[in-house]
């Protein structure tokens, strides 16, 4: 049974956590690995290097959208291909993410997380939930 008193707060917690994780991964690619380094890594694992750019953008802007709750379902679903790609890159490394080159369970879990977020919707404190203010004078007319 779903507790309707707390469900929106659960969706909020998931949304913000996923968003922060996605922003952190984008920042890792930009500031630690560098964009050219990320392009080289993508090429080394068989992806076209140019794919690094839309992946970084998806992680950064998708993460921001999740944190603020803007177009939450769309942002979450937009991250599914990125996370599936990460899962398949880490698949040969085994189960545990602290294995050399990282395992596949962490990106797989994040993939399921964004799918769940898309199913749940924005939750509490989201821009999606804001309603335009209605002029009370017009509402009574």
Automatic annotation (TrEMBL):
Location of the protein in the cell: Cell membrane
Segments passing through the bilayer: 12-33, 45-67, 74-96, 108-127
Top-level lineage group: Bacteria
Organism: Viridibacterium curvum
Mode of membrane association: Multi-pass membrane protein
Keywords: Cell membrane, Membrane, Transmembrane, Transmembrane helix
InterPro entries found in the cross-reference section: DoxX (IPR032808), DoxX-like_oxidoreductase (IPR051907)
Principal subcellular localization: membrane
Lineage summary: Bacteria, Pseudomonadati, Pseudomonadota, Betaproteobacteria, Rhodocyclales
Family: Belongs to the DoxX family.
Protein name (record): DoxX family protein
